[in-house]
Write a structure and sequence with these properties.
Elements (H helix, E strand, L loop, with lengths): L10 E12 L2 E11 L3 H15 L11 H17 L1 H12 L3 H29 L2 E4 L2 E9 L2 E5 L7 H12 L3 E5 L9 H10 L5 E3 L4 H10 L5 E5 L2 H10 L7 E5 L4 E5 L5 H13 L9 E7 H16 L21 H14 L3 E2 L7 E2 L2 E2 L2 E4 L6 H4 L6 E7 L3 H9 L2 E2 L1 E5 L3 H12 L4 E4 L15 E2 L2 E2 L4 H7 L1 E9 L7
Parallel strand pairs: 5-6, 5-8, 6-7, 8-9, 10-11, 10-18, 11-16, 15-16, 18-19
Antiparallel strand pairs: 1-2, 3-4, 4-22, 9-21, 12-15, 13-14, 17-20
Helix pairs in contact: 1-7, 2-4, 2-6, 3-4, 4-5, 9-10
The chain binds glyceraldehyde-3-phosphate (G3H).
Length: 487
């Protein structure tokens, strides 16, 4: 509510995945702490957002688009002044390489400016009038209300802001909880929020999501839930809302993106894109390739080249130049990945690359597993880590059937240089996922492209323009033409 609160309550420690060597072995380093709000304090923050929205009559939801844009521009300028510290915090909190942390920051700034341009276009269109059947109408975009915004740890700045910025710029007010891993990096931006927006427009809360968020949902005061995270959490939260039919949800959720490598593929290209797609930021991207179907006739050549490429990856600290594989922020992740690998081995797969799966505290070296089959966890579970499960197939029906049966529906990649083969796959596949990539990895960008998914992978659509639409309603001011007003 426009105040920076001095904190006297409980705090949670923040440990970096970058470890130090101690007599007891590698240990994550303590790099800070964050406040743990009580339910009461979280509710006060929600009430501030509700008061600022004031049922659509508040200063912010009634402010002109041009003035709201000016606030966001001022905020972005102040955010840019904090670039160095935010980039360093991304690196230390989630172990992202320095180059990728800088890219995350710069991409976010570009996204904000693209959003501003898109909103100016939408606003220009809304000044037009349509006349039909004796009625003249002005179509505008109006806000939805109070938004609860929660971002993910893997893009703690970028993904959070691809919902937060469109939500506020459309006139909504907001309650924002930074991700558990990726909390500190938002701190340098709080002052900018305070200085650039009216009181109560952006309210930041910290704490244990599972103790403070349920009460906020149960209050019925949240109009829009936006979350980039797991479908399980999203479903549980939605159910808590007393009027779930009134709640809008804009969600980016689980994915198990597959690649299909046919015998007509350029294997070298397929390998390059698989390494990028499966292992960028250690496979911790919702858009990552998480299972690879390779035709049995080209499987051995694909695996051999994949092993070579994986073993060339540079393993190290986030600040090291050219580093590819870095420490993992989630403390339980190495044990989970080991369990997936053990389960695959038990069911007949092998780790194909030397050192694959080796781990030490927060480090896990990527593993190529082959042949993966339907009995293994890795066949269906989203590993969200550096493991590449490779499934041999005999007929294209097999990967298509996999997608049909999947509970996920985000993206797929097809690797083939045979245009007829590609064309024959597009129709069956585009009806299973929301993006088909041909001879390239799965990814979100360019950010102006619509970003969504089918089934448990998403609700609503993000992108520069789609997000503005998702966080607003198209409303009309319609006037009947009479003799008095028709001129
Ligand atoms: O985790 C999901 C991100 O939106 C992925 O974005 O494909 O650009 O890495 P990206």
């Amino acid at each position: 509510n426009g105040e920076m609160k001095t904190w006297a309550g409980a705090t949670n420690p923040v440990y970096s995945p970058v470890c130090v060597v101690t007599p007891d072995g590698l240990q994550r380093q303590l790099i800070g702490s964050y406040p743990v709000c009580t339910e009461k304090e979280a509710m006060e923050a929600l009430n501030a957002a509700v008061a600022a929205y004031d049922n659509g009559r508040g200063e912010w939801p009634t402010m002109s688009v041009a003035n709201r844009i000016a606030c966001v521009e001022r905020f972005t300028q102040k955010m840019i002044e904090q670039r160095d510290v935010v980039v360093k915090l991304i690196m230390w909190e989630i172990g992202k390489s320095a180059a990728d942390s800088a890219k995350e920051f710069d991409r976010t700034v570009e996204y904000i400016y693209a959003t501003i341009d898109a909103l100016k276009d939408i606003d220009r269109q809304s000044s037009r009038f349509e006349i039909e059947q004796g009625i003249i109408a002005q179509v505008r975009r109006s806000p939805l209300g109070v938004v609860l915004c929660m971002g993910p740890f893997n893009y703690p700045l970028n993904e959070t802001f691809t919902t937060l910025i469109p939500a506020i710029i459309m006139g909504n007010t907001l309650l924002f909880k930074p991700p558990k891993h990726g909390t500190l990096l938002h701190y340098p931006l709080l002052q900018a929020f305070k200085e650039c927006f009216p009181r109560g427009v952006v309210n930041t809360i910290y704490g244990r999501g599972n103790s403070i968020i349920p009460g906020l949902m149960q209050s019925g005061k949240i109009d829009v839930l936006t979350l980039i995270g797991s479908s399980k959490v999203a479903n549980e939260l939605k159910k808590l809302h007393p009027k779930v039919n009134r709640l809008r949800a804009i969600l980016g959720l689980d994915a198990k993106n597959a690649a299909i490598v046919t015998p007509k593929a350029d294997i070298k290209l397929a390998v390059q894109e698989t390494v990028l797609g499966a292992l960028s930021f250690n496979g911790q991207r919702c858009t990552a390739l998480k299972i690879i179907f390779v035709h049995h006739s080209v499987a051995s050549s694909f695996i051999q080249q994949l092993n070579e490429a994986v073993n060339k990856l540079q393993f190290g600290m986030p600040w090291e130049k050219g580093v590819n594989i870095t420490p993992l922020p989630e403390p339980n992740k190495p044990a989970y990945l080991k369990d997936c690998i053990d389960d695959a081995i038990e069911h007949g797969a092998k780790v194909m690359n030397e050192g694959g799966g080796a781990s030490a505290e927060s480090f896990v070296f990527p593993a190529v597993l082959y042949p993966v089959n339907a009995k293994m966890k890795l066949y269906r579970e989203e590993q969200f880590g550096p493991i590449i499960p490779v499934v041999p197939y005999y007929s294209l029906e097999e990967p298509v059937q996999y997608l049909i049966e999947s509970t996920h529906g985000q993206q797929i990649s097809i690797f083939s240089n045979d245009q007829e083969e590609v064309a024959s796959l597009i129709d069956p596949l585009v009806n299973q996922v929301s993006r088909v990539n041909i001879n390239c990895q799965c990814q979100r960008g360019p950010d102006v492209f619509p970003f969504t998914g089918r089934k448990d992978s998403a609700e609503g659509t993000l992108s520069v323009v789609d997000a503005l639409r998702s966080f607003s309603i198209r409303s009309l001011v319609a006037t009947k033409l009479t003799d008095d007003n028709k001129h």
